[in-house]
Amino acid sequence: MSARGALLAAIVVALGLLAPAAYAERPDATARRAGPLAGRVVVLDPGHQLGNQNFPRQVNRPVPDGRGGRKPCNTTGTATNAGLPEATFVWRVAQLVEARLERLGATVQLTRTSNSLDEWGPCVDVRGRTGNRAHADLELSIHADGVLERGARGFHVIAAPDRGRASVRLARTTRDTLVHRGLPPANYIAGGDGLDLRTDLATLNFSRVPTAMVELGNMRDRVDARRMTTGKGRTAYASALTRAVLRYLG
In this predicted model, what pLDDT tens digit does every residue of 216-231 receive, in sequence order? Predict the structure, then answer.
């Protein structure tokens, strides 16, 4: 191309009349968000924080519980017998779910953005309000249990029954999807159907959007722990949770 031709091409691009090839090949934000969950906002709450153990004063500070009382800001969570912390396990699962939901077009916000020994929180009341601030279509709080009873294993999903039918429906949808994907409901929760309705969890109490908390299994059980400590197992959990969100919002 002549010098004059190059100058004319540069002017055309600058005026926006023609996009350069590199720009034309780059998908825009709308294209990246195309998918069955386009326009949807999902909040994921990976429980606890790896550094909670290092900040006892902050973590034990009382905060509102959403029922007129107060409770500790957070806890350290549990761990497998081999030492995998709950905070790390749920963080890894949440990241997998986040990636899958974003590929489906959703906008995803996490209540914490790291899994660090140098950080703590956020507190349970802040976690519960995150979905409200984000105007989320739903919030899913991801945890694991630490029951010492021998043979206690399986998942269960929790909702606050007086915080709206939508939250209970989200919990049921999540429970049904996990079962459909071959994950067993907890054998140590009353009813044995994997659904638990409670009013004592601030994360659920403060939420004004459909919210459910899932305890993916018992980290102190060797069967559940084996699934939690493998990439294949965490992928199975993430795939099931993604499918649950898709079913609920579909």
Answer: 999 999 999 999 999 9
Sheet of strand 195-197: strand arrangement: 107-110, 41-46, 138-145, 211-218, 156-159, 195-197
* φ and ψ of 208, to 5 deg: -115, 15
For 190-230, the DSSP string reads TTSSSEEE-S--HHHHT--S-EEEEEEEETTSHHHHHHHTS
d(CA 250, CA 247): 5
Nearest to 105 by CA among 36, 194, 50, 16: 36
Q: Determine the structural domain holding residue 3 and report its residue range.
A: 1-27
- How many domains does the chain divide into? 2
pTM of the model: 0.87
Please check whether residues 20 and 99 belong to one and the same domain.
no
Which one of the listed residues 86, 98, 139, 215 is annotated catalytic? 215
**CA–CA distances in Å: residue 148 to residues 11, 48, 241:** 72, 20, 26
215 is catalytic: yes
**pLDDT tens-digit series, residues 137-188:** 999 999 999 999 999 999 999 999 999 899 999 999 999 999 999 999 999 9
Where residue 191 sits, what CATH number does that domain have? 3.40.630.40
